[in-house]
Amino acid sequence: MSLTVHLSYLLALLVAGLAQGIKSSLRGQDPGPQPLELKEVFTLFQIQYNRSYSHPAEHARRLDIFARNLAKAQQLQEEDLGTAEFGVTPFSDLTEEEFGQLYGHQSVAGEAPSVSQKVGSEEWGQSVPRTCDWRKKAGIISSIRNQQNCNCCWAMAAAGNIEALWAIKYHESLEVSVQELLDCNRCGNGCKGGFVWDAFITVLNNSGLASDKDYPFKGNSEPHRCRAKKRKKVAWIQDFIMLQPCEQSIARYLATQGPITVTINMKLLQQYQKGVIKATPTTCDPRFVDHSVLLVGFGKSKSVEGRQAEAISSRSRPHPRHSIPYWILKNSWGANWGEEVSVIYWGREQGRTDLSPPTGPDVP
């Protein structure tokens, strides 16, 4: 078993009960944990996620941010209405502002284009299956990407979307070039953020995409050095569509046609470890979505009972003892984040949706 796995379990054990103490101490209610306890947990975090800081003052600052994030994770644990667990993640030494700047959408100019197809539920019949998971079909969902410090979630979600639909239609697994989308984007934003539809328009303008192997990801962008014309195209699209903001329609399209790109509010994801996020209006405002991901399935959680119910009761917070419908979202933050390798389980509503705007390419 790897060192990382050992450290994960050790971190989980040490952090248990620690966050509540930190939360209280930050509010001045009690002394909280002893400094040595917190420093030990922080040291383990640094080892697990390969963190080092340039000087003691920066180390002390990051330790303080880490403590506040543990307290924030505890608060989210108390407020969440699903089965999600929050705690130490690769982003636990970042402020909320830093996290947003590094991994969310930047404020870039642009509006959703007028597309030729805006489709609703009537186009695919009326039945919606109880579950759908495209990960279970071999070769459909490509490998997990890591956007690193490049604000390119929009490009990675679009690339994963094209790869999935290409595999469904042509039974051919491939990985297309995210770097081409960054270098050749029509708005020239690259790693400064963008929109999924800009990625699709770039593919249309360039008559396809090269392979990732031929045009590899660098983690930065060179908007004035687009090499699309010098690379062989391995996949292409003929258009893209936008779905109506109705969860039944989205589920129906997802099950019958394939994965879809969606944009979510990523505020909860900095502290997210696993489980189904069932956000409140306070913790997730659908008017401020800022992170693009690939929607790959949906289902329902098992009823909360047995060992899970005991764990929930120990947290002393209201919690559902019934199944929770959820979306399965593929993220682009590498294999060390999320559940089952960079996956988010996001609670569904019946009718209204917090996923906006749902879009997808139309593979010829």
Automatic annotation (TrEMBL):
Residues in Cathepsin propeptide inhibitor domain copies: 42-99
Keywords noted in UniProt: Disulfide bond, Endoplasmic reticulum, Glycoprotein, Hydrolase, Protease, Signal, Thiol protease, Zymogen
Annotated signal peptide: 1-21
PROSITE patterns: THIOL_PROTEASE_HIS
Location of the Peptidase C1A papain C-terminal domain: 128-359
TM region positions: none
Chief place of localization: endoplasmic reticulum
Recorded family membership: Belongs to the peptidase C1 family.
Name the record gives this protein: Cathepsin W
Source organism of the structure: Phocoena sinus (Vaquita)
